[in-house]
Amino acid sequence: MNIMKFGGTSVGSPERIKKVAELICRENRPFVVLSAMSGTTNTLLEVAGYLLNRNQEGAIDTLTSLEAKYEGVVSRLYGTDAAREKAGQYVKDVLDYLKTFTKKLFTSTQEKILVAQGELLSTHLMYFYLEEKGVKVVLLPALDFMKLNQQGEPDSDFISSSLAPLVAGHPEAEVFLTQGFICKNAQDEIDNLQRGGSDYTASLVGAALNAEEIQIWTDIDGMHNVDPRVVRDSRPVRHLQFEEAAELAYFGAKILHPTCIQPAKFANIPVRLLNTMNPDAEGTLIDNNPDHGVIKAVAAKDNIVAIKIKSSRMLLAHGFLRRVFEIFESYRTPIDMICTSEVGVSMTIDDTTHLSSIIHDLKRYGTVSVDLDMCIVCVVGDMEWENVGFESRVLDAMKDIPVRMISYGGSNYNISFLLKEEDKKRAMEALRRNLFEKC
Ligand code: ADP
Ligand code: ASP
Ligand code: MG
């Protein structure tokens, strides 16, 4: 069985939904995961924002235009009155329910329920469409099997043990369909897997069902060697090892959510990135096989803050780094990059929620300085230390760019640079020329 996950743009209009239905019907008994139609999750969060600020009018206006948008979709998607009526009624019920939120106290539990409606809407619209086409489709509610544990992590045992019987109970099904992103938490309330989390649903479902392949269908033909939003002339990468894909996803390649690599890697299920708008393009295959000595791609992550602590007490001392790390630990703030010298240590973070408290506490151990508006540019590929020559090619590309930190050796898969955000485009262009054009 293959998992087919379609992102927001892939189901962003009635025409796209029809196209996706065609792709689904080409497969043999696929398990389909859908995101919300593009823009819907943002709109629902906007509504939540109004309700949290007690602006009922803003919430109602936004819900009214959302309803009009979905009524338009319903009127263009279906060919029969029966299907239009069923889908129209579903949309009306959802929107009527959401409007009741404007009359009650709005809590974070309601916010999660509100945000979950995007995926519920898209899967029901697709369900009614496939049904109208005569396809034997089974809609399995993600809320019946996608569950978080007490630590807020997906409970893979629960997911496998609940999903397998649900699938086995429908031998007649030609297509299984479910919602990406949404789940239940340990308290059995509606929750989600964070923004972009439908990719995570697809890989958790793939692992739970021991799928042959997990296909992530989006609006571009695979992982490109540089971020196409920043640099022109990017090219798709045909093959990535899981670790390489994880580094790229974590360091800003939005095409893939970083969390989705781990379940697929552990279950050894290949992930394929494919383009809904160009379904015959080869895309990118991600699996456990290495390509020796090849640099694959460059990604970049914005909104990075660099923190430096200088201290003569670090000289020949032990326990200094532990004390520094404990401060970050106490504020549950992850460190991305780290560089040390005998008298100082520089680190980067992207979660600035507790920045001022962290700086305050670090001042106990040395002189602290902070650089804002930085970015990490990350070069990814097989960079095992015994390979020679790749460092000079990478560094040569950076010769005109002021670099604040360099990190290599943490894994065999990346060299990362910390630069000013304003230098990102220049750095990525230079890396593209040096690494991918010349060879
Ligand atoms: P979906 O809605 O299907 O989940 P996303 O918007 O999350 O799609 O991801 C696809 C987008 O990722 C592309 O349109 C592209 O702009 C962006 N992107 C960023 N970096 C890369 C990259 N290295 N390769 C391909 N796409 C990338
Ligand atoms: N709809 C959710 C979002 O916009 C989840 C997803 O698309 O993956 O973040
Ligand atoms: Mg996405």
Give a structural overview.
This protein has 439 residues and is α/β, with parallel strands linked by helices. It has two domains: 218 residues, Acetylglutamate kinase-like (Carbamate kinase); 142 residues, VC0802-like (2-Layer Sandwich). Helix content is 40%, strand content 21%. The chain is built from 13 helices and 16 strands. The strands form three sheets. Strands 3-4-2-1-7-9-10-8 form an eight-stranded mixed sheet, with helices on both faces. A hairpin with a 5-residue loop joins strand 15 and strand 16. Helix 6 crosses helix 7. The mean pLDDT is 95.
List the helices and strands and how they pair.
Elements: E1 2-6, H1 14-26, E2 31-34, H2 40-52, H3 56-77, H4 81-100, H5 108-132, E3 137-139, H6 156-168, E4 175-179, E5 182-184, E6 190-192, H7 198-208, E7 213-218, E8 239-241, H8 242-250, H9 261-267, E9 271-275, E10 284-287, E11 295-310, H10 320-330, E12 338-340, E13 344-349, H11 355-362, E14 367-381, H12 390-397, E15 403-408, E16 414-420, H13 424-437
Parallel strand pairs: 1-2, 1-7, 2-4, 3-4, 7-9, 8-10
Antiparallel strand pairs: 5-6, 9-10, 11-13, 11-14, 12-13, 14-16, 15-16
Helix pairs in contact: 1-3, 2-3, 2-5, 3-4, 4-5, 6-7, 7-9, 8-9, 12-13
The protein binds adenosine-5'-diphosphate (ADP), aspartic acid (ASP) and magnesium ion (MG).
The site of adenosine-5'-diphosphate (ADP) has 19 residues, from strand 11.
